[in-house]
């Protein structure tokens, strides 16, 4: 006879993925005890990273989803389920209370804190074996999925070692034979035409029986067990830009599509696996103080989470972990108007945005204009916001690298000023344009999820992953 708590969990998983928060809460209330899974064997781990997600983003994303999609988010629902574990991640690196992604992923992937900028190299210069190299010897399948270049710091921390995270050309060959499914951006680090050493990694991967895919259609059509998919030369576009560009949408897969391509391959075989899925551009949007770009990619990440929940919904041997490596710029909705009565109205303006700040500034640079009227027009067209004359003048000055009056030095650049000007209309405020030391949110569901409750030191993740996949 099937365990009734297992049935409740399966039903909840389906409900959460569909975004039905009311049904979720009713079912959670009816379940008196969370499922005991501490001793259950884990066959696979899905490790999801919303890179650079400050804790407040969870609340913003839930409100934004309700506003624009008339439904809640999977991660918010996960927090409301008593079968899931909830905790906070202690994120420091070896040389700073504020970590970067390289040191953060190394902590998870090798169990030691290293200096910012290093991937699996200690401050003393000792090379550490990444978790993928260790688990591969135990016949564990490995997957890396990212919306950044797939050789970027977060995926690289699980499967490579370099003293300098920027050496992505050195990272790319280290995945060969070590990672089974590799999906994201960054074709330039595999292409002979782009690499400084002219090494043709695409041919090397093809010779090792990897299926090579470079478009959304080829990914969806591929039946290869091992995959190398790079869909852009650099990072994948922000979701807000992809969604407003039919050509991009036709060519570049979503994070959900890439994640599903990886997980379905692993679930089809009776072998243990570790799959890292990164929503990388949430971090990039925070650096740019771009609330439209950030929330668009956070919801894209949440869609991937919802799909993963559905795919593992009938399984009791898959551990799901959802977290972030660090906060970034700490965006929050400030109260606007008398009695904060205009806060909702201002927040709703984000739903009308048509482009990321990255694309907007790139378009501006392409125009090579110098008139305030042009930048005002572009921002009006893409963001639906009309800059004041003095705001447009200040933006032009900082783009031209001329001094402006700005007491917060982190904001003394185009992205900082633009974020503040947009915030005057949306109510969104930022503390800066860099990473923060805040503990990040962590949720876990499935066998041995209790390991991730409470305060979790980032280096502890490595031991938990190793022990669960033994």
Characterize the overall form.
globular
Instruction: Find the CATH superfamily of the largest domain.
Output: Alkaline Phosphatase, subunit A
Describe the sheet with the most strands.
10 strands, mixed
Content of β-strand: 5-15%
Low-confidence stretches: 1-9, 11-37
Q: How large is the count of helical segments?
A: 21
The CATH architecture category of the largest domain equals 3-Layer(aba) Sandwich
Q: What oligomeric assembly is this protein in?
A: single chain
Describe this entry's structure for a reader.
By secondary structure, the chain is an alpha/beta fold. The chain folds into two domains: 6-330 and 436-468, Alkaline Phosphatase, subunit A, CATH 3.40.720; 353-429, no CATH class. It is 42% helix and 14% strand. It is built from 21 helices and 14 strands. The protein has helices spanning 4-18, 21-30, 56-69, 74-79, 101-110, 131-136, 153-159, 168-171, 201-207, 216-221, 239-243, 246-251, 255-267, 281-287, 291-311, 343-348, 357-367, 372-383, 389-399, 414-426, 460-468, and strands spanning 44-50, 85-90, 141-149, 181-185, 211-213, 227-230, 273-279, 318-323, 327-328, 332-333, 428-429, 435-436, 440-445, 454-457. It has a ten-stranded mixed beta sheet, with helices on both faces. Helix 10 (216-221) links the parallel strand 5 and strand 6. Helix 5 runs parallel beside helix 7, helix 14 (281-287) runs antiparallel to helix 15 and helix 19 runs antiparallel to helix 20 (414-426). The chain is globular, with a radius of gyration of 22 Å.
